[in-house]
Design brief:
The protein has one domain (4-143): START domain (Alpha-D-Glucose-1,6-Bisphosphate, Chain A, domain 4, 2-Layer Sandwich), CATH 3.30.530. It is globular. The chain has helices at residues 16-24, 26-33, 119-143; strands at 4-12, 36-41, 54-58, 65-73, 77-84, 88-100, 103-114. The chain has 146 residues and is α+β, with helices and mostly antiparallel strands.
């Protein structure tokens, strides 16, 4: 099965702290990408969306699945994996945040393999995952220009 790679780079006219908070808080991230996302397990630390927190995504018409945060460095990095109920395996999502000349720079990568061996299945999943995320992040960036 062919490994799939998604890479989204976006700049924002907003401080890193603000963009980081919106994109790493599970429910607000759901609003950005227009998907029903709910935190179902809180991190035991101060940040409920930190390491060990779990979010459930209901990407109608597909079945719900869960993602678990595996690494969180405030205003710098968030990593997560699909932990339950998905047609993909060996998934890793990574959001890296940096600042350049007063702007926030996001580098968001997602790597995964489809569970089914059909050649086109991976490409279809890649598009289904990438399109709402890319569109939502672009809309968020535009909202800071207003």
């Amino acid at each position: 099965m062919r490994r799939q790679h998604i890479e989204i780079r976006q700049s924002f006219d907003a401080p890193v702290e603000k963009v980081f908070k919106v994109l790493t808080e599970h429910e607000s991230f759901g609003k950005v990408i227009r998907k029903n996302i709910k935190r179902v397990v809180d991190c035991q630390d101060e940040n409920k969306n930190g390491v060990g927190s779990v979010r459930r995504i209901n990407p109608f018409p597909l079945p719900a699945f869960e993602e678990t945060v595996t690494r969180l460095e405030p205003n710098r990095l968030m990593e997560y994996v699909v932990s339950q109920g998905s047609p993909i395996k060996n998934h890793k999502g990574r959001m890296e945040f940096s600042e350049e000349q007063g702007k926030t720079i996001l580098c968001y990568t997602i790597d995964f393999e489809p569970k089914l061996p059909f050649v086109l299945f991976g490409a279809i999943l890649k598009q289904a995952i990438e399109k709402p995320i890319r569109s939502g992040i672009e809309r968020l960036a535009e909202s800071y220009h207003a």
